[in-house]
């Protein structure tokens, strides 16, 4: 399973365009992807700051999402000032029923899209998580 919290900063004046893209992304993601569990966007308290909670059945479903036509088809460069993806893991008994984030090895027969996604979005699982499972 792969769960992430995206910390997003939008360029000034691009809020409406960003929110339109996000509505389309959520609709397309839930309409075409089988491995999505949660995919939610929120506005932060600070101007131009947004957050996204993404949770997928496994990292392959996350990589499929990242490499999908609907994800690749938007002009994110026009609206994004910055983004930081943070992998997160649920606290046992307090994580909304989400399974733990895991980083299985890339299969030998992985296609080019999965290899590219692995390079762009490697999972970073801190060692201290295993002691808190």
UniProtKB/TrEMBL annotation:
Domain ABM: 1-72
GO MF term list: monooxygenase activity
One Pfam family linked to the record: ABM
Domain of life, source organism: Bacteria
Coiled-coil segments: none
Keywords associated with the record: Monooxygenase, Oxidoreductase
The keyword Oxidoreductase appears for this protein: yes
UniProt protein name: Antibiotic biosynthesis monooxygenase
């Amino acid at each position: 399973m792969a769960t992430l919290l995206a910390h997003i900063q939008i360029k000034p004046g691009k809020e409406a365009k960003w929110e339109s893209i996000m509505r389309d992304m959520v609709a397309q993601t839930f309409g075409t992807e089988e491995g999505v569990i949660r995919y939610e966007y929120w506005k932060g308290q600070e101007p131009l700051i947004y957050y996204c909670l993404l949770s997928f059945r496994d990292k392959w479903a996350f990589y499929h999402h990242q490499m999908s036509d609907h994800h690749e088809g938007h002009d994110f460069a026009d609206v994004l000032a910055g983004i930081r993806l943070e992998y997160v893991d649920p606290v046992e008994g307090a994580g909304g029923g989400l399974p733990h984030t895991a980083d299985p090895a890339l299969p030998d027969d992985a296609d080019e899209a999965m290899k590219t996604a692995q390079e762009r979005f490697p999972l970073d699982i801190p060692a201290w998580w295993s002691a808190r499972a």
